[in-house]
Amino acid sequence: MFFLIFVKNEELAECFEMTMNKKSCLNCGHSISDEFCAHCGQKSDTARITLHSLIKNDILGSIWHVEAKFLHTLKNILFRSGKTGMDYIAGKRIRYNNFISLLLILFGFNVLSYHYYEKFAPAQTLTDDVVYVKDFFSKYSKVILFVIIPMLAINAYSLFRRIKLNIAEHFIIGTVSLLGILILFLLSDIVSLIGLWKPVEKIFNIIDKIIFGLSILFPAITYWTAFKNSYSKPGLLWRVSVLYVLMGIETLIIIAVLYEIF
Predict the structure, then answer these.
(1) Strands of the chain, DSSP E
(2) Domain boundaries, the chain
(3) Are the C-beta atoms of residues 86 and 226 closer than 8 Å to each other?
(4) What is the pLDDT of residues 61-89, one digit of tens each?
(5) Angle at CA 97, nearest 5°, toward 108 and 87?
(6) Is 213 exposed, middle or buried (0-12, 13-18, 19+ CB in 10 A)?
(7) For the whole prediction, is pTM greater than 0.90?
């Protein structure tokens, strides 16, 4: 009996403490008793802005939060691409940057890095063929960029039916694949820039070729790691192989059409 009274008093004390700790959110006016407002998401400890809080929370905190999340997303796409895509589809999204926004950011970085490579590379490196290919892809880069994802999604939707993902979810896997390719392209441009220094030219040319090979294989790695628990190795192998054949044929058709237009 004494034990029941003690437990009841403890529960009443907790309820009283929660009631006393409740306050109104300064943003939306709803009652809050936790770290964040359940209605609008603002932190409950919002206080007057001081020089200390401005530097610590608003400036340094924001930079660190954005940078840490950005780097965390890049690392997971590069080293755990399949799991990252499936986690995002499963609803685990707060830990990652928005993939579409990241796609545009990486695309911009790639354009910028190639611009600097073109600026510092010796004239003999930039042959007419290289310049022609660069001009071609500069003009149609956005078309190629936004056609690859639907191609991957539609082909994968047809090949990986057992997974029961809808077409929009396959778009996410396709986006992760393209993000990985863009990250590797960016690394390739950085390596090429470093490789312009004669003492390290040979070794960085080898590294550049390895990165290029990885960029070609990256979609295969993504789909393999995403669906490895749902298919046998032979089943995954033929599906990924067919995906590459289809992508190759479709890419050649698109490039041929764009070439005629160009």
Answers:
(1) 23-24, 31-32
(2) 2-46, 53-261
(3) yes
(4) 555 555 778 888 999 999 999 999 999 99
(5) 125
(6) exposed
(7) no
